[in-house]
Write a structure and sequence with these properties.
The complex is a heterodimer of chains A (about 120) and B (about 120). Chain A has about 120 residues and is mainly beta. Chain A contains no helices and 11 strands. Chain A is about 0% helix and about 55% strand. Classes of the chains: A mainly beta (about 120), B mainly beta (about 120).
């Protein structure tokens, strides 16, 4: 009964390939996020969706395209992978309360290695 | 804009000793403040959060943090460290945006090592 799940857990691929990461939450939350954690463990938000609507879109290369088919799912597609895309990608979800006070629940992460 | 500074990327303590992890923030509006913990190869888990109620916040696993507006700090403490506390700890700030979805700004993390 995992609250926020991600697939795959590990992803090793060649430069130039296209890959997708999937995220699902069973908490009934209305907001989902993608974060990137670099090799120095710095966490930065990439995207956020609220009720399937894109709310936060940080300065991310347009090779990254999120898609939310419904409130429980948020996928991340990455085109033309580059070495610098190697990182751990975390999905998170929350229920909107008062803007900013929400607890975010994180998935286990997807470790992407681009060779 | 919001930012978080965590002093000390690595902290080592002996089992049973006091744990003190430092966090200072900057925010142009009243902040919400969070501490998350990340165990190896896992996602982040909320330890505690401050949302403008009591300034001393108690969290899980015996941790607590005190919001000090005058010092713009939100340091995390635990009276007696346990081996299982070894992990990466992240302080995060979010601004109070009322009806608008907020976002978290994370510090760079502090790796806590607990020696037997």
């Amino acid at each position: 009964d995992t609250a926020v799940s991600q697939t795959p857990k590990y992803l090793v691929t060649q430069m130039g390939n296209d890959k997708s990461i999937k995220c699902e939450q069973n908490l009934g939350h209305d907001t989902m996020y993608w974060y990137k954690q670099d090799s120095k463990k710095f966490l930065k938000i990439m995207f956020s969706y609220n009720n399937k609507e894109l709310i936060i879109n940080e300065t991310v290369p347009n090779r990254f395209s999120p898609k939310s088919p419904d409130k429980a799912h948020l996928n991340l597609h990455i085109n033309s992978l580059e070495l610098g895309d190697s990182a751990v990608y975390f999905c998170a979800s929350s229920q909107f309360l008062s803007g900013g006070a929400e607890t975010q629940y994180f998935g286990p992460g997807t470790r992407l290695l681009v060779l | 804009a919001q930012s978080v500074t965590q002093l000390g990327s690595h902290v080592s303590v002996s089992e049973g000793a006091l744990v003190l992890l430092r966090c200072n923030y900057s925010s142009s509006v009243p902040p919400y403040l969070f501490w998350y913990v990340q165990y190896p190869n896992q996602g982040l888990q909320l330890l505690l959060k401050y949302t403008s109620a009591a300034t001393l916040v108690k969290g899980i696993n015996g941790f607590e943090a005190e919001f000090k507006k005058s010092e713009t700090s939100f340091h995390l403490t635990k009276p007696s460290a346990h081996m299982s506390d070894a992990a990466e700890y992240f302080c995060a700030v979010s601004e109070n945006r009322g009806s608008t979805l907020g976002r978290l700004y994370f510090g760079r993390g502090t790796q806590l090592t607990v020696w037997p």
